[in-house]
User: Fold these one by one.
Assistant:
Number 1:
Amino acid sequence: MNTLLENMHDGVREEGIRRAGEILRDGGLVAFPTETVYGLGADALDAEASGKIYRAKGRPSDNPLIVHIAEWDAIETITEDLPPQAKLLSDAFWPGPLTMVLKKSARVPYATTGGLDTVAVRMPSNEIALALIRAGGGYVAAPSANTSGRPSPTTAQHVLEDLGGAIDMIIDGGPVSIGLESTIVDLTEEIPVILRPGYISKEMLEKIVGEVRVDRGLLADDPSVRPKAPGMKYRHYAPKAPLFIVEGDRAHVREKINELTAAEYESGRLAGVVATDESFGVYMHAVVKSIGSRDQELTIAQHLYSILREFDLLEVSVIYSESFETPQMGPAIMNRLMKAAGHQVIRV
Ligand code: AMP
Ligand code: MG
């Protein structure tokens, strides 16, 4: 298949959006930028089109897709028994990086929800995404536009690497602004439950709807506790080289990482280090990359996935990463990093 590339670095281009909308309405696949990561879109109300997403990504069929909408009223078509918290959270955070899990209506095929009676819904804020959703009929199912098991794409180049030749079109809107997938909150229980941490923190949600819980499957080290979002049980984003997170007092972490990289170097191998702008200069005998600044946590989120992809292109034998318990996005950043590391942590 020939994958069309549409450049929209300077914003929405009507002609390209019209073409992309046609592809979606014909049951095809279009990758597009959102503020979180690039999404791989298909018509969410068309079971066959949704099915194509699973095939293109190599995604397990029990892993449901998020339905993207561009107007609040669209939620009536795809959900039932809408709880009052949905409107409150929508007023506070939509359009934006929040996904709500709600009871699905008969209009949403099980192919889109991975066989579940609930549907995940989000209204993104990216202008290109909103224009595409409108042009495509109003309901776009879209998981991250990566091959299953690879880091989520934060640039169109990442999408091309993974899915070039397998999908109809990629809209290039430049690098995304957040870099981690949306916060998912389940509103089908009496007390809302966070199923996946993201840019919108627990505290931000609680200011709007009161008590919010975190899914036990996210907190537990015990693998027998299954996360409620089916996608969270898979080990995502694993880089080729083994990844270890070094945790503890900042000075000790630096010392430990240098000790580990020196040992690697003496054995004739080269380690990789995930550092920050603040610590970049202190590491030796290693390929050192800065993920961003601790003073601007968004920069850390923005570069997490691209740094994992960059290390995959290098011949490093092992990767050591500092840990990033930042105030707002810390839980989201560490959730993704811990998964990439297969929960291998060195405590100092
Ligand atoms: P992605 O779009 O790649 O970020 O993946 C979507 C995420 O949303 C996966 O982790 C899914 O398991 C989760 N998800 C989608 N729909 C539902 C749902 N109805 N209930 C729980 N989790 C969901
Ligand atoms: Mg994904």
Note: DSSP finds twelve helices and 17 strands in the chain.
Number 2:
Amino acid sequence: MDISRFKGRSLLTLLDYSPEEIRELLDLSKLVKAQQKRGEIRHRFTGKSLAMLFEKRSTRTRCAFETAFGEEGGHPVFLSTADIQLGVKESIEDTARVLGRMFNAIEFRGFKQSTVQTLAEYSGVPVFNGLTDEYHPTQVLADILTMEENFGDCRGKKLVFTGDGRNNVARSLMVICAKLGIDFTVITPLGLAPDRDLVKICAAATAASGARILVSDKPDDVKGACAVYTDVWASMGEEDKKAERVQLLKPYRVTQALMNKTGEKDAIFLHCLPAIKGEEVNADVIDGPQSRVWDEAENRKHTIKALMLATINGTAD
Ligand code: CP
Ligand code: NVA
């Protein structure tokens, strides 16, 4: 597989990647997952270092980057905002310049999309968006990989996201589905509908892919979905909105009755995690036979390893 054209690139949002490039990253993810399952560890990041910047908490994203890079011989360095200057006593541009002199790549999780953009602009090394208020691109690579493991080619299949339609995960799912030709329905109260400009951009991408994008406030529109996805009702940084969101989003909870409304007996349940059982999803669904959330969490690691091999090394050899 020739992945040399990825070398040196950042992943800030999947809007910057073509459908073919996303396809290649997913195929590479399958390859690195199979290699790991066979026990093949190739030390492909030996002599390399990764700066991991976190303004927000993380379990999966941190552990996926850290283990994927470390087990291939690389040196990941975790830096929370309690440890480093990042727009506090030093501009983000200057921190980026310094990190770019010492590290082969940078991962960033935090609030503003502009921070991850600035890091990419001034560091001169690949920068990976590990979640911002706007996007969570590495998450949705793992989500689509999980869908493909269950259904094979997902073009023309329907994925439903129910919950906070404005959030980073819903937005990123819309982008990847539009590009890959997967039908995507967001079921959300009108006040939490996704940003119109993003819907327009995604609608433009569907012209080539054939995907259908629908924004609805009716849970019945889950019909025909092969995958039902939800996320927390108040994302990190929005804790003050929690009470209001609980009232708004109660009708959008994933229950077994909602799963049954898909009319698809093989439908699966997905969640980026962490989940609050009894809020956005009932325990019998997330812990039940239709749930694929643990595969989905594991797939964070394989997709992130593939992304780093492509962009840092430009080769998977
Ligand atoms: N899904 C996800 O990003 O999980 P963490 O917040 O634990 O990294
Ligand atoms: N929307 C959630 C995703 C967590 C992985 C958040 O931003 O908190």
Note: Residues 293-313 form the longest helix (21 residues).
